[in-house]
Write a structure and sequence with these properties.
The complex is a heterodimer. Chain A is mainly β. Chain A is built from one helix and twelve strands. In chain A, a hairpin with a 2-residue loop joins strand 7 (59-61) and strand 8 (64-69). The chains are: A mainly beta, B mainly beta.
C-alpha cells in the first residue's frame, strides 16, 4: 500500500533563511507520481509540482527547488531565502499508475499529514 | 485563484439540520472530487465523479450524499451530521483519462462546524 510520511509537523524559521521540508514515500509500483501542494491560511490547496518516477532530475523554480532521490524514497522541498508569504501548510502526495488504471482514469492521491511552515519576520 | 470555487466558505449547523455544499469548476475538467480534511490527519478522499457518474465512494456514511448534475458542478448534501464531521471539506477537479496531464486542482474549502 502506498504511504507518505512528513515527519516534520511544524517548522519555524526567520525570514530569508533557507528551509527544507521532508517527504518520504512508500510504494510498490515502478511508475508513480509525486506532488507538492501549498495550503495558505485561505484554505485552498495550490499545486506546486508533479514529478514522475522516471525523472530524477532535480527541479528549480525561482526560490523553490525539489530533490527527488529514489534510493531513499524521498522527495524533499527547499525554499531559499524564505519570505513571510511562504507561511502555509505544505503537503506531499503520491499516486501510483496502477491505481490510475483501476480507478476509471483518475489519479488516486495519498497525502501526507502536512508540514506547517511559519516564516518569522 | 485555482478555478475551483466552493460555497459557502463557512457553515455552522446543528445535528438535525440539512445543508448543502457547492463546488463549481471553470477549468473544463471532467472529474470532480470531495475530500475531508480533519486536524492532524491526511486528506481523506470521499467521492469521485467522472463525467457526472460516481466512480468512488470511500466508505462514506450515508449522512453525506453527493450530487453531480454536470461536469462543472458538484454538491455535497448533509443531514443529521455528528460533531466529529466538523472539518474542512475540499472540492477538487482534474482532467480525465490522460495520466500525463492528471493534476487535481482544489477549491478553498468549506469550514464546517457541527454543533
Amino acid at each position: 500500500a502506498q504511504k507518505v510520511t512528513q515527519a516534520q509537523t511544524e517548522i519555524s524559521v526567520v525570514e530569508k533563511e533557507d528551509v527544507t521540508l521532508d517527504c518520504v514515500y512508500e510504494t510498490r509500483d515502478t511508475t508513480y507520481y509525486l506532488f507538492w501542494y501549498k495550503q495558505p491560511p485561505s484554505g485552498e490547496l495550490v499545486f506546486l509540482i508533479r514529478r514522475n518516477s522516471f525523472d530524477e532530475q532535480n527541479e528549480i523554480s525561482g526560490r523553490y527547488s525539489w530533490n527527488f532521490q529514489k534510493s531513499t524514497s524521498s522527495f524533499n522541498f527547499t525554499i531559499t531565502a524564505s519570505q513571510v508569504v511562504d507561511s502555509a501548510v505544505y503537503f506531499c502526495a503520491l499516486s501510483e499508475a496502477s491505481t490510475f488504471t483501476t480507478n476509471f482514469g483518475n489519479e488516486k492521491l495519498t497525502f501526507g499529514t502536512g508540514t506547517r511552515l511559519t516564516i518569522i519576520p | 485563484e485555482t478555478g475551483v470555487t466552493q460555497t459557502p466558505r463557512h457553515l455552522v449547523m446543528g445535528m438535525t439540520n440539512k445543508k448543502s455544499l457547492k463546488c463549481e469548476q471553470h477549468l473544463g475538467h471532467n472529474a470532480m472530487y470531495w475530500y475531508k480534511q480533519s486536524a492532524k490527519k491526511p486528506l481523506e478522499l470521499m467521492f469521485v465523479y467522472n463525467f457526472k457518474e460516481q466512480t468512488e465512494n470511500n466508505s462514506v456514511p450515508s449522512r453525506f450524499s453527493p450530487e453531480c448534475p454536470n461536469s462543472s458542478h458538484l454538491f455535497l448534501h448533509l443531514h443529521t451530521l455528528q460533531p466529529e464531521d466538523s472539518a474542512l471539506y475540499l472540492c477538487a477537479s482534474s482532467p480525465w483519462g490522460d495520466i500525463a496531464k492528471n493534476i487535481q486542482y482544489f477549491g478553498a474549502g468549506t469550514r464546517l462546524s457541527v454543533l
